Task: inverse folding
C-alpha cells in the first residue's frame, strides 16, 4: 500500500508565499494520480480546493494554485491571509483506491 | 443539492461491531461511487473503501480487509459501513463521501467511540 507524504507543519507570514507538497512512496506523482487538495478547519469537513492537480473550483480563492513540481503534487499559496490557517490534506488515487497524506498544519504568523 | 446525512454517534465495547448509515439525497445513489473515510483524533484522513452503488461491487483498503463490509440499499438511497472486531484504535469520525465533478461531497461524520 502506497504512503503519501506531506510536510507536517509550515509557517507563512501574512502576505507571504508558501508551497505545500505531496509525494508518493511509489515514485513520481503524475496527473494519473488525480491529485486533490483539501482545506480543513477545526470542526469542519474537508473542503476541496484543487482537483486533478491544477483545477480550481469557483469557491477556491485565486491565491491558491496547484501544480506538479519535481515529482510531487504541490499547492502554492501566494499572499497568505489569516483565514488560510488550517490543515491541508492531499489525496492521490491508485487504481481507484485512495490514499491521503498526513496533512500539513499551516500557520499564518 | 447533494446531501449525505449520516446516523448518530455510537459507543461500542472492544470486540463489538458497528454499523453506520449514509442517506443520499439530491442525486441518484446508483450514479456515483460512494467512499468511506475515517479520521481518528489528531490523525490523517484514512480511506477505508468504496461501493459502486449501481452494481454493489466493493473495494476495501488492505488495512480493513476481513473486518469491513460496505453495502447499500438502493430503494432507501442509503449506504452502510459495518466494522467488526472493534478496538480502541477504531475510535474516530467516520465520513461517507462521493466524488462529483472534481468535488467531494461529505456527510457530517459519525463519531464512533470504542471504550470498555
Result:
Amino acid at each position: 500500500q502506497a504512503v503519501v507524504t506531506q510536510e507536517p507543519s509550515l509557517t507563512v507570514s501574512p502576505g507571504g508565499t508558501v508551497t505545500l507538497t505531496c509525494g508518493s512512496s511509489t515514485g513520481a506523482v503524475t496527473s494519473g494520480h488525480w491529485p486533490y487538495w483539501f482545506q480543513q478547519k477545526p470542526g469542519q469537513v474537508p473542503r476541496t480546493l484543487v482537483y486533478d492537480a491544477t483545477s480550481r473550483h469557483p469557491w477556491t480563492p485565486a491565491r491558491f494554485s496547484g501544480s506538479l513540481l519535481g515529482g510531487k503534487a504541490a499547492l502554492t499559496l501566494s499572499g497568505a491571509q489569516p483565514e488560510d490557517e488550517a490543515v491541508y490534506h492531499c489525496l492521490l488515487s491508485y487504481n481507484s483506491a485512495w490514499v491521503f497524506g498526513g496533512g500539513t498544519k499551516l500557520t499564518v504568523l | 443539492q447533494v446531501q449525505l446525512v449520516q446516523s448518530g454517534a455510537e459507543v461500542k465495547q472492544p470486540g463489538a461491531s458497528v454499523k453506520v448509515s449514509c442517506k443520499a439525497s439530491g442525486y441518484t445513489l446508483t450514479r456515483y461511487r460512494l467512499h468511506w473515510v475515517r479520521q481518528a483524533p489528531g490523525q490523517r484522513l484514512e480511506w477505508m473503501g468504496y461501493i459502486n452503488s449501481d452494481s454493489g461491487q466493493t473495494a476495501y483498503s488492505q488495512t480493513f480487509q476481513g473486518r469491513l463490509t460496505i453495502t447499500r440499499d438502493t430503494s432507501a438511497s442509503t449506504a452502510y459501513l459495518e466494522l467488526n472486531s472493534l478496538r480502541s484504535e477504531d475510535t474516530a469520525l467516520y465520513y461517507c463521501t462521493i466524488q462529483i465533478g472534481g468535488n467531494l461531497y461529505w456527510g457530517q461524520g459519525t463519531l464512533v467511540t470504542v471504550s470498555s
Observations:
- The first strand of chain B starts at residue 3 and ends at 6.
- DSSP finds no helices and eleven strands in chain B.
- The interface with chain A takes residues 35, 37, 44-47, 50, 59, 61-63, 95, 102-104, 106-109 of chain B (CB under 8 Å).
- The two ends of chain B are 40 Å apart (CA to CA).
